[in-house]
Specification:
The complex is a heterodimer of chains A (about 190) and B (about 170). With about 190 residues, chain A is α/β, with parallel strands linked by helices. Chain A has one domain (about 5-185): Thiamin diphosphate (ThDP)-binding fold, Pyr/PP domains (Rossmann fold, 3-Layer(aba) Sandwich). Chain A has helices spanning about 5-15, 25-35, 50-60, 70-75, 80-85, 115-125, 135-145, 170-185; strands at about 20, 40, 65-70, 90-95, 100, 105-110, 130-135, 150-155. In chain A, the strands form 2 sheets. A 6-stranded parallel β-sheet of chain A has the order 2-1-3-4-8-7, sandwiched between helices. In chain A, strands 5-6 form a two-stranded antiparallel sheet. Chain A is globular, with a radius of gyration of 15 Å. Chain B is α/β, with parallel strands linked by helices and about 170 residues long. Chain B has one domain: Rossmann fold. Chain B is about 45% helix and about 20% strand. Chain B has a 6-stranded parallel β-sheet, with helices on both faces. In chain B, helix 2 (about 30-35) links the parallel strand 1 and strand 2 (about 40-45). The longest helix of chain B has 13 residues, at about 50-60. Chain B is globular. The N and C termini of chain B lie close together (about 5 Å). The chains are: A alpha/beta (about 190), B alpha/beta (about 170). The interface of A and B includes residues 20, 44, 59 and 180 of A.
Chain lengths: ~190, ~170
């Protein structure tokens, strides 16, 4: 299973939740599978999906899923410590760990060598850290979202590989405003 | 404490209700005040760039965020400022302890001090430079301005203004 297959499998679970989606192919694939106003597509700032989702979950009550990648988490690992100490129960971090930098040509990341993001997350103080296969991810993600009392970090181990895909045609303010409209903040659209 | 209290009071008057900090000796009193304040959210964060991401998320969730940091933190955050906060036009207040300005005892702080305002100018980030107590009155209006222009804004607090705020 690669990222595109996984995103296809979990799209129904994401439907009612606020989703922060990582820059590059993850966002482009999610957009192609089933674009929704409650999906915030990152067009820059690699590494910050986990952090943006954390800020969002701290500031309102809807469930938040940050979709991140192994390369991006490796770039901003300090935020696992913030998540380990501050994440509220409406927060789930889904790390799609394919052991490679998919958007830049599938170069190997350190999770394909010695690094375990599960161990890093546990060491950083995160609770409910789950490492699972792509097939198990649907079930684990549903459980995490349904649990109103705990935050989760799910590391989904899948294969590398991408589908051929176009950049997202939406401009950033459209992404921002329709997302905030879904939350109920923007009234003018 | 007087100066720090005035800064926080004015930020709150400007509507800021979500605070993060990467610590600085000059911010210590403000951090103390915020830790005891039940009306606003406050947390420390390990790194400024990450803080920019958390602030962006808090803005999406209808908070008006402020990140407190040394001017060195701007250097750590340029890509996040440009390709997240400015790209999506997010109003975030940077409250910056301006290390390396006159009064600073640590020579090595001078390097970032020399280029801090150049970086902010290059990024087209509106600046409020506070060097005396009177300047602090402008903070609430300046913070509101961030929302009007949908842009991050920077408040720079000089070393000499903060150093004796016991």
């Amino acid at each position: 299973m690669n990222r595109f297959d996984l995103l296809n499998k979990i799209q129904n679970i994401l439907k009612d939740n606020l989703v922060i989606c990582n820059i590059g192919l993850p966002s482009q694939e999610l957009y192609k599978i089933n674009d929704q106003p409650n999906f915030f597509y990152m067009l820059g700032s690699m590494g910050l999906s986990s952090s943006i989702g954390l800020g969002l979950s701290l500031s309102q009550n809807k469930n938040v899923v940050s979709i991140d990648g192994d390369g991006s988490v490796l770039m901003n690992m300090n935020t696992l410590a913030t998540i380990g100490n501050r994440a509220p129960s409406n927060y789930t971090l889904l790390i799609i760990d394919n052991g490679s930098y998919g958007s830049t040509g599938d170069q190997r990341t350190f999770t394909d060598e010695n690094t375990s993001l599960k161990d890093v997350a546990i060491g950083a103080g995160c609770k409910n850290v789950v490492e699972c296969s792509g097939d198990e991810t649907v079930n684990e993600l549903s459980k995490a979202i349904d649990d109103q009392n705990n935050s989760y970090v799910i590391i989904s181990k899948i294969n590398s590989g991408n589908v051929k895909i176009d950049p997202i045609p939406l401009n950033p303010i459209t992404i921002r405003d329709r997302f905030r409209k879904f939350i109920g903040i923007v009234k003018y659209l | 404490m007087k100066i720090s209290k005035k800064i926080i009071d004015n930020l709150k008057k400007g509507g800021v209700d979500f605070y993060l900090s990467v610590p600085c000796k000059l911010l210590a009193n403000m951090i103390d005040i915020l830790e005891k304040d039940k009306d606003v959210y406050y947390s420390a964060v390990p790194r400024e760039e990450e803080g920019m991401g958390i602030c962006a998320g808090a803005y999406l969730g209808n908070k008006f965020p402020c990140i407190m940091m040394q001017n060195t933190g701007i250097g750590n955050s340029v890509n996040a400022i440009v390709s997240l906060l400015q790209l999506y036009q997010m109003p975030i207040v940077f409250l910056i302890s301006y290390r390396g300005t006159p009064g600073e005892p640590v020579g090595a702080q001078g390097g970032m001090a020399k280029i801090t305002e150049d970086i902010l100018q290059m990024l087209r980030i509106p600046m409020l430079h506070c060097s005396s107590e009177n300047d602090l009155e402008k903070i609430s209006t300046f913070s509101k301005h961030a929302k009007v222009v949908e842009s991050p804004v920077a408040i720079l607090c000089d070393f000499n203004l903060m150093k004796d705020d016991k």
